[in-house]
Amino acid sequence: MSRQDCGGDHHHRDDCGFGAGFALIVVLFILLVIVGASWLF
């Protein structure tokens, strides 16, 4: 079992959830930048 497993104890699960949420925010931010750039230019 690796430490980054989502099925570990609650500490590891919290880290996994934070990582997934952060990745989602990054993807949404990139999409926002692309849409904003195409709208401005």
UniProtKB/TrEMBL annotation:
It is found in: Membrane. The chain crosses the membrane at residues 20-40. InterPro entries: YjcZ-like (IPR010070). GO terms for cellular component: membrane. Its main location: membrane. It is a single-pass membrane protein. The keyword NAD does not apply. Keywords: Membrane, Transmembrane, Transmembrane helix. Pfam families: YjcZ_2. Belongs to the SscA family. This is YjcZ family sporulation protein.
